[in-house]
Amino acid sequence: MKIILPAMFLAICCGCRHTPEKGAQVRTIPRTEHFSHTVADSSCYIHTAGQHQQDTTLIRVQLRPDSVVGTMIYQPWQKDSRRGSLLGIRRADSILAEWNYRQEGQRSHKTLRFTVEGDTLFWLNAADEGIRDNSGAINPIKLYKTVCP
Questions:
Q1: Which residues pair with 55 in a beta bridge?
Q2: Domain boundaries of the chain, sorted by first residue
Q3: Which of 6, 8, 15, 93 has its CA 20 to 30 A from that of 54?
Q4: For 95-112, how does the pLDDT look when each residue is reduced to its tens digit (9 = 90+)?
Q5: From the centroid of its chain, how far is CA 118?
Q6: DSSP 138
Q7: What one-character DSSP code corresponds to residue 44?
């Protein structure tokens, strides 16, 4: 019995191997056909706050000329996080985006306002969320450009 099971497994594995027929054309798909966009199109911004920089907001977006698409994670220390998608419009340096997120299994959404200045993303209505920066200021929250994870 000890020999029969491994022999059957080996026979099944070898018998199921597919090889193209002789003369059949095999097409290799270039990598660019797999994805409509790449990670290189995305920019990431981060904000940390709290006594030990333990509260984190991370935004990963594609900043297009007239629109914004991405994700946002708000992770306060030892509290429930909010994770979801960002979809919005962009006019010059101003962004108006809808954040559709989940928290504690519930779906919700908020309208967020941002401005972009160089490598900094300013979250203008962060006070609506009660988010403060390290100096205690409520508005705006600065998110700094970082390497995307």
A1: 49
A2: 37-146
A3: 93
A4: 999 999 999 999 999 999
A5: 21
A6: -
A7: E
pLDDT attached to residue 136: 61
- Alpha carbons 16 and 12: distance in angstroms, whole number: 6
Whether the pTM exceeds 0.70: the reply is no
* Spatial distance between the Cα atoms of 33 and 83, rounded to a whole number of angstroms: 29
DSSP 3-state assignment of 25? coil
SS3 letters across 93-128: CEEEEEEEEEECCEEEEEEEEEEEECCEEEECCHHH
- pLDDT tens digits, residue range 110-132? 999 999 999 999 998 876 665 66
How far apart CA 70 and CA 43 sit, in angstroms, is: 9
User: Residue 17: its pLDDT value, please?
Assistant: 45
